[in-house]
Amino acid sequence: MIFIITKSDMDPIERWALSPAVYLAIVSALANIFLRYTFSRGVEISWWVVTMKENTRIKDLHNVWVHSTSLWSAVSVGRGFSPVALAAIMLALVPASSPLVPRASTASSRTIVAEVDVSVTAAQDVTGDRGTGMVAPGRTRYPSFVSASFADVLQNHLASAPISIQAGDVSLCRSGTCSGLIRAAGYQMSCVKSSTTFNETISNTVDYGLDDEEVVFGTNISYYGAVGFENGGKSIVGLKTLFKSGRGLGSHRDCSGDLAVRKCSLVPATLEHRVTIANGTSITLDPRYTYKDDKFVAYYNFSMDQDGFLSAHGGLGLALADMFTSKVTLNMDPVLGLKLVSKGTTAMQYRRGGSESDHSPCTMQ
């Protein structure tokens, strides 16, 4: 029993054909059988040992026999207490431990952390020989559609399909989750913050005219190809966001206030990403981290946008623009009042505030 408890301690239960509790129950039953056999043989030996001693009385021989057959006699022996009486009492207590022995082993869930090396195949860049976009013939060299190979990747992303991996040496990840760093293709992202204002009130409309409208929320993604671009021939994805900054309560309640502006550039690069591997079969970005936690490794050069009709990152730029470009415009008509118009799903995804009873669109965030 000691061996089973010690061997199974902190050992994953899937390594056992039967649970330790079952093994303990079996060993406990065998222990009862062997102890009773051993006790009966021990009584015989004790009886003969007492017989061969000098000055042995009939009462001494009787006690050896009666203590082994009657628990009451062993307990109430008084001054004539002997090893046989002690063994009889201990043997009588053994069955009481039978229901307790299996409970000496319990299973529980614990987070076990260990450092392991896992081999995963991942592209260091996405240039390859196929690219992500198709460039129409002509001078523009601007991608007009995604490539056939990237279309499959894009469909899997839109369907939220798991990213399957063929990883080597992932036995330690099959029953849980491994998290760590992987070196693979990505975008080195840098952003600049600024601010602006908006004003869609009656007084402002009188000054600027009835057709004046302002963007109060916007996400715009643009692709800049390598040809003629100043950043060392690198394709860049640009991201610009505009939203109510929330500085002061009036920024969300009134029809004028502050707008936060973020301008970001995404340059193709090799990065170390924070990822998780689930059950040794799929990999995903670790939700506990953001792009700010990615570690830059190196930029990589390519000339695919200049040669042939394939664009290395143009398809990515098109896909990002189609999925995330969005805007919300606010217009004040002196007669009809405020008019709020949205375009794109991103605006709907990030909408906060406002209610059916409050008809002013300026309360939205």
Element layout with pairings:
Elements lengths: L1 H7 L11 H32 L6 H12 L1 H5 L7 H11 L39 E3 L7 E4 L1 H11 L4 E2 L12 E23 L2 H7 L4 E12 L11 E9 L5 H4 L2 E23 L3 E4 L9 E5 L10 E2 L2 H11 L1 E8 L3 E7 L1 H5 L16
Antiparallel strand pairs: 1-2, 1-10, 3-8, 4-7, 5-6, 5-11, 6-7, 7-8, 7-9, 11-12
Helix pairs in contact: 2-3, 2-5, 3-5
Describe, in plain words, how this protein is organized in 3D.
The chain has 365 residues and is of the alpha+beta class. It folds into two domains: 2-104, no CATH class; 133-363, no CATH class. Helices cover 29% and strands 28% of the residues. The chain is built from ten helices and twelve strands. It has helices spanning 2-8, 20-51, 58-69, 71-75, 83-93, 148-158, 202-208, 250-253, 314-324, 345-349, and strands at residues 133-135, 143-146, 163-164, 177-199, 213-224, 236-244, 256-278, 282-285, 295-299, 310-311, 326-333, 337-343. A hairpin with a 7-residue loop joins strand 1 (133-135) and strand 2. The chain starts with a helix and ends in a 16-residue tail after the last helix. Residues 227-231 have low confidence and may be disordered.
Summarize the structure.
The chain has 365 residues and is of the alpha+beta class.
How far apart are the termini? 65 Å
Total number of distinct structural domains: 2
Low-confidence stretches: 227-231
List the total number of helices. 10
Oligomer designation:
single chain
Shape: elongated
Q: Taking all residues together, what is the mean pLDDT?
A: 80
Number of DSSP E strands: 12
Largest sheet: 9 strands, antiparallel
Strand content: 25-35%
Percent of residues in helical segments? 25-40%
SS class: alpha+beta
Radius of gyration: 39 Å
What are the secondary-structure elements, in order, as H or E? HHHHHEEHEEHEEHEEEEHEEH
